[in-house]
Specification:
Elements: H1 30-34, E1 42-50, H2 53-63, E2 67-74, E3 77-86, E4 95-100, E5 116-120, H3 126-136, E6 141-147, E7 150-156, E8 162-168, H4 175-184, E9 200-204, E10 206-207, H5 210-221, E11 224-229, E12 237-242, E13 250-254, E14 268-275, H6 278-290, E15 295-300, E16 305-310, E17 316-321, H7 349-362
Parallel strand pairs: 1-4, 5-8, 10-13, 14-17
Antiparallel strand pairs: 1-14, 2-3, 3-4, 5-9, 6-7, 7-8, 11-12, 12-13, 15-16, 16-17
Helix pairs in contact: 3-4
Length: 383
């Protein structure tokens, strides 16, 4: 079974000596690390679990304003849908995807089950407009919060996924000024152009060992790190992981007291990072193999190629190529308008569609949904 097939992502450590051998990664000299530095360009997509495709579609297109760019099936579990939403062009780093698994229980945030994901908006004045819009749609929303060089709102989708909407606070705007903007912001009856979600800002897994996670991602993937305090929970830190161009597209919440999580409905299943070329992906696979890190090998997903593995706390990570992209089998204007299958699944289309129809008959979803409440502070593991 490939890592991408696993419903249950309880803690998984391929090499059990990670924690006991402090010099485990010392076999890699700086020149070896430099060979991987810069290969990972940022986030490619983030995949979650939803209970109902129609409720999911309406929320991410009508409430968050994204475009469905691919309607297909989970290639490792072909009788369940895989839904892709992104910006209007399907830009790498903007796609949030969902496995539709209505039979799964509700998941739990923890080790192996990341905390949340964040989308960027281009302008600060979009933040109060988003708060008004989300509140008018009945969505549980908290903020704005001003911290860590960002201004952010947090919300929950119908399944309970925590989504952050954020923008850089380049002008060092205060909380008081943001409150004034809230009072002055015009009411909005639709998502305006300046409110559009662009690419992901970051994803937030959970780590039980700050130093181990840092070494793992530096030595195996050539990434860089820095640390911040977490204002939402004493005793936890924010471990920022990135590259030269973007220092924190991964923002782990780290604490030795972190508990195991469980991926189910309303949780992040895996986080995919992007590389430009197939050869870059192969270099990373060779490094994983050289260190005995279990991985899937290269898997052809048709729209990109994937390499899956887990970090020391069981978080499922993926390295994905940028090409050939979502327009490989559909023109841009038709993206996501019908069920598409890679060529090797076309002989099974009739059986797949019949199974999906039967699933729809069993799985009902109400619109508008009853949105789960979001607790504050939003980045506390005690919520």
């Amino acid at each position: 079974m490939l890592p991408s097939q696993s419903y249950n992502t309880t803690r998984y450590i391929r090499t059990t000596s990670f924690k006991s051998e402090s010099d485990y990664f010392m076999q890699f000299k700086s020149e070896s690390i430099n060979k991987l530095s810069g290969l990972i360009k940022g986030l490619h997509h983030i995949t979650l679990v939803t209970s109902n495709q129609e409720v999911n579609r309406r929320f991410y297109t009508e409430v968050l304003g994204l475009k469905r760019v691919k309607l297909t099936v989970n290639q490792d579990d072909i009788y369940h849908r895989h839904l892709f939403y992104a910006d209007e062009k399907g830009t790498t780093g903007s796609a949030i995807t969902f496995f539709e698994w209505p039979e799964l229980p509700k998941g739990e945030i923890g080790l192996g089950s990341p905390h949340h994901l964040a989308y960027t908006v281009p302008r600060i004045d979009a933040i109060p407009k988003w708060k008004f819009w989300l509140s008018s749609q009945g969505v549980s929303v908290e903020g704005p919060f001003v911290r860590g060089g960002r201004i952010s709102l947090y919300l929950r989708d119908p399944d309970g996924v925590i989504v952050e909407i954020t923008t850089p606070n380049t002008d060092n705007i205060s909380s008081e000024y943001i409150k004034e903007l809230e009072h002055l912001a015009p009411s909005v009856s639709e998502i305006t152009q300046e409110m559009k979600l662009t690419t992901f800002d970051h994803a937030t897994p959970i780590s039980s060992d700050h130093d181990l996670t840092e070494r793992f991602l530096e030595k195996l993937l050539g990434l860089k790190s820095s640390t911040r305090t977490n204002p939402d929970q004493e005793g936890t830190t924010i471990l920022e992981i990135g590259n030269e161009d973007r220092s924190d597209f991964l923002r782990y919440i780290a604490t030795p007291s972190a508990r195991d999580g469980f991926v189910g409905k309303g949780n992040v299943h895996h986080i995919a990072m992007s590389v430009e070329e197939d050869e870059d992906q192969l270099k990373i696979m060779r490094r994983l193999n050289d260190t005995g890190i279990g991985n899937s090998g290269i898997v052809d997903r048709f729209w990109f190629k994937s390499l899956y593995f887990r970090d020391p706390d069981g978080n499922l990570l993926e390295i994905a190529t940028k090409r050939p992209g979502y327009t490989a089998d559909e023109p841009l204007e038709k993206l996501g308008s019908k069920l598409v299958l890679p060529a090797w699944l076309e002989p099974s289309r009739q059986r797949i569609e019949k199974k999906l129809e039967a699933q729809d008959a069993r799985s009902s979803g109400e619109w508008p949904p009853s949105y789960p409440l979001l607790k504050s502070p939003p980045e506390s593991l005690q919520n």
